[in-house]
Design brief:
Blueprint: H1 2-5, H2 8-15, H3 20-23, H4 35-45, E1 51-53, E2 59-61, H5 65-77
Antiparallel strand pairs: 1-2
Helix pairs in contact: 4-5
Length: 91
């Protein structure tokens, strides 16, 4: 953990807490010994949209951590020839 805190960006954030908003929260609070969990959280937080329409015709609102995890697992399991399309709708 000490190696992490000595990195320049992290050291600056520790010295200047007003930068917290700029970097999207407290970067120091995120690290842990669970690298797999950190990677999964980062992946689940990087959703391209708030909903998912599956190939089976199911419409899912992505409103919680379980749904975000399902979203990414679903995309990872799609066949190689499937297309993923993001649709922006303003009603």
């Amino acid at each position: 953990m000490e190696d992490y805190r000595t990195q320049l960006v992290i050291a600056v954030c520790l010295d200047k807490p007003e930068l917290e908003e700029l970097v999207g929260g407290d970067p120091i609070a995120r690290p842990s010994d669970d690298l797999e969990g950190l990677l999964r959280h980062a992946m689940d937080s990087a959703l391209p949209s708030n909903a998912l329409l599956t190939l089976e015709g199911r419409w899912l609102d992505i409103a919680n951590a379980d749904r975000r995890r399902y979203f990414n697992d679903y995309l990872d399991a799609l066949p190689a020839d499937a297309y993923a399309v993001r649709v922006l709708y303003h009603g």
